[in-house]
Amino acid sequence: MPDTLSNISSAEGTGQTLPDATLHEHTLDNGLRVVVREDHMAPLVAVNLWYSVGSRHERPGRTGLAHLFEHLMFQGSANVAEGEHAALMQDAGAQFNATTSFERTNYFETLPTSHFELALWLEADRMGTLPSALTQVNLDNQRDVVKNERRQRYDNVPYGTAVERLFALAFPEGHPYAHTPIGSMADLEAATLDDCRDFFTAYYAPDNAVISIVGDVDGAKAFAEVERYFGHLGKGPGVPAARNGHAGPLPEQLRREVAEAVPAPALFGLFRLPADGTREMEAIDLAIGILGSGTSCRLYERLVRQDQLVTEMWFGTDRFASGDSVALLQLVAASGADLARIEEVFDAELAAFVSGGPTAAEVERVLAQTERSFLNQTATVTGLADEISMQTTLFGDPGRVFTTVERVTSITVEEVVAAARTYLAPQNRAVLSYRPES
Amino acid sequence: MRSELPGGLIGLTCHLPGRELASAQLVLDAGAGREPDGLAGTATIVARVLTEGTAQLNATEFANKLESMGATLSAVADLSSLRLVLDAPVRRLPAAVELLAEAAGSPALDEGEIARLRRERLDEIRLENADASHRARVALRAALYDSADRASLPTAGTVETVTGIDAAAVRSFYRDTFGTGTLVLAGDVTDAHTTLAKAFSGWQAAAEPSTPAEPRFTRGPRLVIVHRPDSVQTQLSIAHPAPGRDHGDWAALNIAAYVMGGGLNSRLNAVLREEKGYTYGFYAGMQSLRRHGLLIVEGAVHTEVTGPALADTIAEIRKLVTGGPTAEETASAVRALADAAPARFETAHRIVAELASAVAGGLPVEYPSSYLAALRVVDAQRAGAALAGQVDPDGLTVVAVGDADRIREPIEALGLADVEIVED
Predict the structure, then answer these.
(1) Chain A (394-423) residues lying within 8 Å, Cβ to Cβ, of chain B
(2) What is the pLDDT of residues B216-231, one digit of tens each?
(3) Choosing a second label site near B357 at 20 to 30 A (CA), which of A170, A354, B125, B243?
(4) Are residues A366 and A429 in the same domain?
(5) Do A210 and A317 sit in the same domain of this protein?
(6) Structural domains of chain B, with CATH
(7) Is B106:B51 a contact under the CB 8 Å cutoff?
(8) Neighbouring-strand partners of residue A112
(9) Does the distance separating the beta carbons of A148 and B302 come in below 8 Å?
């Protein structure tokens, strides 16, 4: 029997689970999946909805639509006036927001339990009736807001478009991950009211959503409330078939030079990885954690401390279930350091890891980090609700939340090394090198 | 719970059942306000070198030991304090607190590590200043404070000052400032005092506490454009001096600032974002510093609309100062700030951070709860009076980071103040 990481590590009892892992699950007749987790530590409740739609569902010429639509979800619905959603949430003492990613769009609020029904009513009203409040004025206004979001977060930031460029470089044109959720200025400009209505009809339906409720509520009572507010909504027409997101490792390295007004030369990389939900993904995540997370990892030790070639470093993964996950790398050169030299050292460290494997100390460290990030993610009702929605939406199994650490400790060292050999090989990489424009 | 620890340290501990991730902060009277003239940034280098090796462990060994516990430890200096921040799973807390004590009590202060951190800080300054919002904050402080006030320079120093920080400067700052302090700890921990007392048994309070200086401001109005050619947006950052957290107006000022720019339906966002689409979002809020506070208003706007956006911003500030908030706005802001407290303080980390911030500001440990109580009794009259009494809409300091060739004229046309141009 091969040694799993849990056997190799000398760390005592990682695999820690929360004291009570009870989840209540129910599906309404209209297909809305509901998961409730009682947590009576504070008089708070987190309400979290995941719609199974993200930028990967956008068609060519309409990039950014999923995110623009997310903004419109705050502009009112049949029974909620413009601006009223935010006003009611603020009045209730709620922390609320929404985000759009490649695979999903989430809407969430954490608020005093006494306002639980308000959150359900607002979410149900926009799930059921959003188009009745859609106007050209609202669309034009939020289009301007989103264009300014794009400028503020990407276009007016040094290296701000690196990730967008990497996805475009690493995935072929037309691939669902070839563009990022923010979308292009031209496509944002082109979006029409009809696009928004069609998008709503196709994707914003109870049977394409999950609602998670975590906090100071009674399970049975919470189901009854969800039934009361969402039960009357009709099923959607069924979502359009999504394009295949699985591409596999790159056959050869893809490179671009970028000359921009940036403060220092830098290397950015994207590695295509296996889909989430596979043992291979757990294995490569461990390899990347060992190589690149924290300040005692191999890459930091070598590039930052020892050779002092790099001042800022990031190496981590983004998991996707419906296609390739990715690893993203950022290495900002120390003044006077040469990018070619940095890349040479980076490659040498990767090669050494593939040939020698991890040390016992490295395994122990990465498992401790896994446990810690699990505790972090589940420490708040807000975080736990989002995690439950994620596992339910992507894997149909909210209970996976509590087996995160087990999935990691069951991986063998051989699997970690094999995954590193395949996915960290030099050819499986899209690379941008930034050179400052004077 | 308050307790006395070795070497004059004060312990503040809070048992939070069910919180598996514990958090601890050591707050020391070793902020940037105590740096010698010309060596701005020393406190930051000292903070950073604490986790780069101790008498027992070199930098990598120290980091590895910490990370193998699933713990993180960082140290950061602001103007009034230097704080070490530890987060660790409860069952590994005693060992992690030992490392915290080692970092604070017997750091190696190694010359090679100090030289590396200085080089990294110099590179970091270039990276930070490339960010428009950071650059605006730097320019804002330079314009707002008298140049004799330490706050006029960035907390972590400038290229000129950081270049002069050597091992001797780091060691003498450590020797002269590390002493009395407060340890705050929270989590599902029942024997917190024992854990702290054991780890800090060798602590000695050598240094004298400091006497913070009164802030010195320049006179507004000021209007500074940091010229950044080809910017697609203009970063606007506006400030006005105000009293601090120990002042009777503080809660009322926070309510007024929240009405101005605290949320999505605040006055600034209602106009600049939801009505006109000039921005992704504006923010207004009170920033607390030792012995004073600042009203801060900031946001990024499309270059083409910089003039009208700034005009609207100033008009909204003026309208709120002269007319005050409505009863409805005030009540909503009170609920937003006070009722959201349980959600904001769900984790041990957040609770410890709040208590540590009060301690660093020289406030009593009850401050976080008395502040919440003070928020709840603010009415429209009180919020309006506090804002009108403390903020002069004709005395604002305004910074715009953007393309001066395109934004200078529209800004000048507003007639707010003489425009000063700073090359980026």
Answers:
(1) none
(2) 999 889 999 999 999 9
(3) B125
(4) yes
(5) no
(6) 2-199 (3.30.830.10), 222-423 (3.30.830.10)
(7) no
(8) A44
(9) yes
